[in-house]
Design goal:
Helix content: 40-55%
CATH class of the largest domain: Alpha Beta
CATH topology of the largest domain: Rossmann fold
Shape: elongated
Radius of gyration: 24 Å
Number of domains: 2
CATH superfamily of the largest domain: Vaccinia Virus protein VP39
Length: 260
């Protein structure tokens, strides 16, 4: 939670200032307006409290960081896998520690032109990419076609704010996956639960349908879904498996085998 507040401190500061300003104004305004100012201050304080509590619960107390949820979704493990990050990689180390025998490649997609949120710039300054991380683009991953069993995108894809860029990333994920491979997408969704605790901040998230449209455009299909900590969703999207080879058929008899 401390790290989230550190990277998003302008938003928390704005919430605190809004609450304080509302209380100060309520002392100087006439009664009807003063009531509205107090109500606005209370709403700002409640939103600040709910978002902080939700962040603490999800990132510090839930199973998100243990990756137990990934073990449930992928009982055999991730296999040869690709970890995508967008400036802040918090998945590669715990996944590698849990499945040390499974080959891992880490690709950082950070692009300051496309990823304009101040929080990701601050996070990147404090947490540089791990040694061995490959630089990449959302539309050109530095990985061979059909080389990965799993692609992990944990809080990475939403940093691409333009629809076409997200669709391009999904197309690249489909390219690098082997037939039957899996893209595991982990994100907050723009839904009722996240809106209730994050308020207008939930507009930074994308809806489940947005992600499924991007998956369908890349030929990926939803295979499983799991809620993590009540506010985060993991979607397992699979690449098509190869069609089974047709069974051999008996050859039709030729004329030379027929009785005269």
């Amino acid at each position: 939670m401390r790290e989230v507040v550190r990277y998003n401190w302008p938003l928390y500061a704005a919430g605190g200032l809004a609450a304080g300003a509302g209380l100060l104004l309520s002392r100087r305004l006439p009664r009807p307006a003063a009531g509205l100012a107090r109500a606005g201050a209370a709403a700002a304080a409640a939103l600040l409290a709910s978002s902080t509590a939700a962040t603490w619960w999800v990132y510090d107390r839930s199973e998100l960081r243990t990756f137990d949820w990934l073990a449930e979704l992928l009982p055999a493990g991730p296999g040869e896998h690709l970890v995508l990050s967008s400036g802040l990689d918090e998945a590669s180390r715990p996944v590698a520690a849990r499945w040390p025998q499974h080959p891992q490649t880490v690709v950082d997609l950070y692009d300051p032109v496309l990823m304009t949120e101040g929080s990701i710039r601050r996070a990147r300054r404090h947490v540089p990419p791990a040694p061995g991380t490959l630089p990449g683009r959302h539309d050109r991953l530095p990985v061979a076609t059909g080389s990965a069993d799993t692609v992990l995108a944990v809080f990475a894809a939403h940093e691409l704010r333009r629809t076409g860029d997200r669709h391009g990333l999904f197309a690249e994920c489909a390219r690098v996956l082997r037939p039957g491979g899996r893209l595991v997408l982990v994100e907050h969704l723009r839904d009722a639960a996240n809106t209730a605790v994050y308020g207008p901040g939930a507009q930074h998230f994308f809806s489940r349908q947005d992600w499924l449209r991007a998956a369908a455009g890349a030929g990926l299909h939803l295979a499983a879904q799991r809620r993590i900590g009540g506010l985060v969703t993991a979607l397992v999207l699979t690449a098509p498996a190869p069609a089974p080879a047709p069974a051999p058929t008996a050859a039709a008899p030729t004329g030379k085998h027929l009785a005269p």
